[in-house]
Predict the 3D structure of the following.
Amino acid sequence: MITFKDQLALAVYFTLFGIFLSVTYDILHFYLKRWKAKAAVGYVIQALYWLGMTLTVCLFAYRVSDGAVSIYTFLFFFIGVLVYRGLLRLGLHKDLDRFTRVFARTYGFLKKWLRELLFAPEMASLLARARQAVKHKLTKQKPKEEQESQ
């Protein structure tokens, strides 16, 4: 028999997991809209997302409740979704915009820094000289004695 304390803990776990499901779906939907994915690609990505989340939900519910998945499990998932939609959703979109801008700036800085590090003028001149030396060795004319004997 499951005690009241255990049932209350399960209710909290399942509500938090419902919030998690809503947040991850909202993030997926936000970036699909932002990248302007074609409808067919969006449907395929969402189908894969829901297949993965269904497996995750089943495993989570099975492990947390020690194999006793009851009907109120899904009720608390739904309550978690409602809590997220009612209270937390607006702040997430602002945070995702901010995160995307910071990530883009960081990516641009790192890309520029790595390009300068890997393709510095000294490195470029060294590679050019090495390429010329190899080309010179490969295209070197045979001595006249070898050409006459052929």
Observations:
- The chain has five helices and no strands.
- The mean pLDDT is 83.
- The CA atoms of residues 125 and 144 lie 33 Å apart.
